[in-house]
Amino acid sequence: MRRVAVIGVGITKFGKHDRTSSELFAEAAADAIRDADIAPSAIQALYYGNVTGGEGEKQLHTGPLAATLLGLPTIPTTRFENACATSHVAFRHALMEVASGASDVVLVGGAERVLNIPTDAATEYFAYCSDASYEQTVGLTFPGVFALIARAHMEKYGTTEEQMAHVAVKNHRHGVLNPKAQFQKEITVDTVLKSAYVADPLKLFDCCPFTDGGAALVLVSEEIARKRPRAVWALASQAATDTMFLHEKRDLSRVTATERAAAAAYHQAGKSPTDVDVVELHDCFTIAEIVATEGLGFFEPGAGGVAAEKGWTSLGGKIPVNPSGGLKAKGHPIGATGAAQIAEIVTQLRGEAGARQVEGARTGLTHTLGGNTATVVVSLFGRD
Amino acid sequence: MTEHVLTLKHFFEEARAGRLTGIRCGKCGELAIPPKEFCPTCQEYDWTPVPLAGNGAVTSFTVIRIPPRGRAAEAPYAVAVVRLDEGVSLLGRIVDIPLEHLRTGLAVRFRPLMTGEQTAVGFGPV
Fold first, then answer.
1. Rounded to whole angstroms, how far apart are CA atoms A88 and A84?
2. Position B2 confidence tier, pLDDT thresholds 50, 70, 90
3. Distances from the Cα of A241 to the Cαs of A81, A238, A373, B58, B122, in angstroms?
4. pLDDT range class, residue B110, cuts 50, 70, 90
5. If you count DSSP H runs as helices and E runs as strands, how many of each does chain B have, helices first?
6. A166 annotated active-site
7. Is the domain defined by A4-117+212-225 classed in CATH 3.90.1010.10?
8. Whether B41 and B76 share a structural domain
């Protein structure tokens, strides 16, 4: 297998847009192609992620549509759907197409548009990513899934609502430094603790927002990347699955798919958690960041809440997590999120992240979680 | 062609009649909620339906205050993961228990929730 690098990244502004998800992807993809400094005609395939287009936009067959709007209507396309991990799964498969030698230049990314529909409809469509028979029938929502996880973590380890609030405060502080972020406004622990419960013990400010946006990456073979000083190497990309049924999880305080994907990715890259300089991970809810920092091996099980409270995951801390503002402040267009996380890590490793730059970052990690924790992808990136 | 021990349709038809049914692996003894082809523990196909008494204890719960479309009139409502006495867990809607009385470890008992043609898992007081 050949080495593969990212040479181009593009992200739309995250927030509310009056354009379709396919238009948003096309904008991000055009930016990624310009950033890569290649001819659009060099692109040989599109790996595309979109989740709720069929429901919210009455639009399926979004791969060819995105390619058409991009102005590349003849390239082969594949549309992926793995809930919130969608475009990170697409990335892993695009990586394999280039690594295998089947293609030299591949475009990957995703987009989502949900702010055109009412919140209760978006809540319903997102809930389609949990099981229809056992989970949707009792009225479980995604904040509800992570509330069940939060309570289990609180009971087992003594994690507090205040510790969870620190995750939101930190990610909002980072988001101020990211011009693409949906929220560029600092909040306090009090803001979080005084916000209304959405699904106890999670409150409004424990939750990421609904977001419109797109993100894209250009992947190339080693031969092409070697001539590009801004290339960032994909060192590993591993996916893991866990049971779709919450009732089958042996320990609700853990996400075992994160632990398995991370172990495989560290092994593939020949790295360990202490080698990682900067992380973009899946903070769809504050508790999700705490559990992920444990599952990725940065802290012992149960220590993630204390780490958040002490600022160890902040810019300038032991292991900076979500310098982009994360899903919490940057926003979470679910089909685009994985690609957007990778774009941030590539930007960090290039040293081009401006006010939110992690100084001297050489190795970065991305972690994206899908749905009720059933899909996780972990990738590692490096400058050499 | 495999003989299906218990399909989702059968599970919920039984549940509608007030009976919870699990499946037990004849090779390794794993108890599971249907449907499954291979046993996730030993990968054999040797399931037998077993009745579950429906008694258990709450292991985690939440109160849903922002519901999905169509459930506004039901909110706020509680959803819990319940570990049944037989050792397998099941997600269900909490009914007839005041929200402020909910805690982990609370003993609950299965009851079917029927809305038109649809059946869901519910848990109420013992």
1. 9
2. low
3. 14, 10, 8, 26, 28
4. very high
5. 1, 8
6. no
7. no
8. no
Spell out which residues of chain B touch residue A148, defining contact as CB-CB under 8 Å.
60-62, 79, 81
Write out the residue range of the structural domain in which residue B94 sits.
55-124
User: Are B66 and B117 in a shared domain?
Assistant: yes
Residue B1 has pLDDT above 60, yes or no: no
Section A360-383 average pLDDT: 97
Across the interface, whether the CB atoms of A138 and B91 are under 8 A apart is answered: yes
Please name the member of B59, B70, B91 whose beta carbon is closest to the beta carbon of A140.
B91
Tens digits of residue pLDDT in A311-345: 999 999 999 999 999 999 999 999 999 999 999 99
Domain membership of residue B30 (yes or no) is yes
**Amino acid of residue A188:** T
For residues B59 and B118, membership in a common domain is answered with yes
Cis peptide before B112 (omega within 30 of 0): no
Digit-coded pLDDT (tens) for B8-62: 999 999 999 999 999 999 999 999 999 999 999 999 999 999 999 999 999 999 9
pTM: 0.98
> Out of A166, A172, A332, A367, which one is annotated catalytic?
A332
Cross-chain CB nearest to A148 (options B32, B62, B120): B62
* CB distance A168 to A308 below 8 Å: no
Closest alpha carbon within chain B to A248: B89
Where along chain A do its domains lie?
Answer: 4-117+212-225, 130-208+235-325+351-382
Could you confirm whether A84 is annotated as catalytic?
yes
- The domain over range A130-208+235-325+351-382 is classified in CATH as 3.30.428.10: no
In this prediction, residue B109 has a pLDDT band, given cuts at 50, 70 and 90, of very high
Query: What DSSP character marks residue B117?
Result: T
Q: Are residues B37 and B18 in the same domain?
A: yes
Residue A147 touches partner B, C-beta closer than 8 Å: yes
B69 and B118 in one domain?
yes
* Cβ(B106)–Cβ(B58) below 8 Å: yes
**B45 and B93 within one domain:** no
What is the spatial distance between Cα A369 and Cα A348, in angstroms, rounded to a whole number?
21
DSSP H or E run through A46: strand A46-49
Contacts of A137 in chain B (CB under 8 A): 118-121
- Answer whether B69 sits within 8 Å of A201, measured CB to CB: no
